[in-house]
Design brief:
Blueprint lengths: L3 H21 L2 E3 L9 E2 L12 E2 L2 E4 L19 E6 L6 E7 L7 E12 L14 E6 L9 E6 L10 E8 L5 E4 L16 E8 L10 E8 L5 E5 L21 E6 L9 E12 L13 H10 L19 H9 L6
Parallel strand pairs: 3-6
Antiparallel strand pairs: 1-16, 2-4, 4-5, 5-16, 6-15, 7-12, 7-16, 8-9, 8-15, 9-10, 10-11, 12-13, 13-14
Helix pairs in contact: 2-3
């Protein structure tokens, strides 16, 4: 028979192993010193620049260069962040890092972002799509991937109309397309020079290729804390949200990119901070990778509310009710 002390030590050891395992399956990068120093991102902490690209750089929140001078403050920012501007004709800024996406079946990706536009380097002073993106890499026919895409609400008109969240995914037949929600919705008309946190959860590695698709998307205003999210996935009426090339190999990296037309069209800007890859559970209301008391309280306080894009509506049926509470209770402790 195991003695109480031995049993306690075993439990502590198992907990330590589980915590270490959970940490090994997660990723966080806040671009802070001493790991990072202001300057070119390439070469810092294993980030690299793909061929035929221009560099991203690490910047201090204090003392921004003129083209980032109107960037709003990030309430969750530390000392530093990364950013890039498309300012070189024929070349696009790309920052890439290798990552073991095969370590989990289902992932939650989140990152702080701010969008801007610099007309002073634009050939005609106009803003061109696509602004920027986050993607799984390699984004080629041999790998499964999706793209978190940033697009202008009014390209070639005015960036003051804001930007919108879109996604490059596939339909059931394997054709890639850009999808979005019809406005009005909380993913449309997002402001420039303002920090948000963007979320996307996806099932990557499953024995059934038809299960490899995005499962939830969301956005948080980092100034107000207002959060909006919704479960997604292929349906008979909308057979999209699948990963592109879903039967291909598991990707090996991820990339941030700044775009905007071709040739001499310039000026799009993306700033990024606090990149996190964690476990995902539908009971994770606040999407921090852990189903805990905060998620339970959020559902209880919102109980009975109806509407769309409510994070407490974990199953996306338009009502915060018993089903959402059970989601949190059954998944309590996941990812923590």
């Amino acid at each position: 028979m195991m003695r109480p002390l031995q049993k306690g030590m075993l439990i502590v050891a198992l907990i330590g192993m589980l915590v270490a395992f959970a940490n090994a399956q997660s990723f966080f990068d806040g671009f802070e010193p001493p790991t990072y120093a202001p300057g070119i991102l390439t070469g810092q902490n294993s980030w690299y620049r793909p061929a035929s690209s221009t560099d991203w750089s690490v910047y201090l929140y204090s003392g921004l260069p003129a083209w980032l001078g109107s960037l709003g403050s990030n309430p969750g920012g530390g000392q530093q962040f990364i950013a890039a501007r498309k300012d070189t004709p024929g070349f696009f800024p790309r920052a890439q890092k290798d990552f073991n996406w095969g370590a989990r079946t289902i992932w939650l990706v989140s990152y702080d972002v701010a969008v801007n536009f610099d007309p002073s380097v634009s050939a005609d002073g106009l803003n061109y799509d696509n602004i920027a993106s986050f993607s799984l890499q390699p984004a080629t026919a041999n790998y499964r991937y999706f793209i978190d895409l940033f697009q202008w609400v009014s390209p070639q008109v005015t960036p003051n109309d804001g930007w919108r969240m879109t996604w490059v995914v596939s339909d059931s037949g394997g054709s890639a397309s850009i999808v979005s929600f019809d406005p009005p919705n909380p993913f449309h008309g997002l402001q420039i020079n303002k920090w948000y946190r963007r979320f996307v959860a996806f099932r990557l590695d499953d024995s059934n290729p038809d299960a490899r698709h995005l499962v939830k998307v969301g956005i948080r205003d980092l100034a107000t804390g207002d959060t909006f999210s919704t479960p997604v996935g292929p349906t008979a009426d909308f057979p999209y949200w699948y990963l592109v090339n879903r039967t291909a190999a598991i990707p090996t990296a991820f990339r941030f990119f700044v775009g905007g037309g071709t040739g001499t069209n310039e000026g799009n800007i993306l700033a990024v901070d606090n990149v996190a890859f964690t476990a995902f559970s539908f009971g994770d209301v606040d999407m921090n990778g852990c189903v805990d008391d905060a998620d339970l309280l959020a559902v209880l306080f919102a109980f009975g509310n109806t509407g769309a894009f409510m994070p407490e509506d974990t199953n996306g049926d338009g009502t915060v009710d018993d089903a959402d509470l059970l989601n949190v209770l059954f998944e309590f402790g996941n990812g923590c």
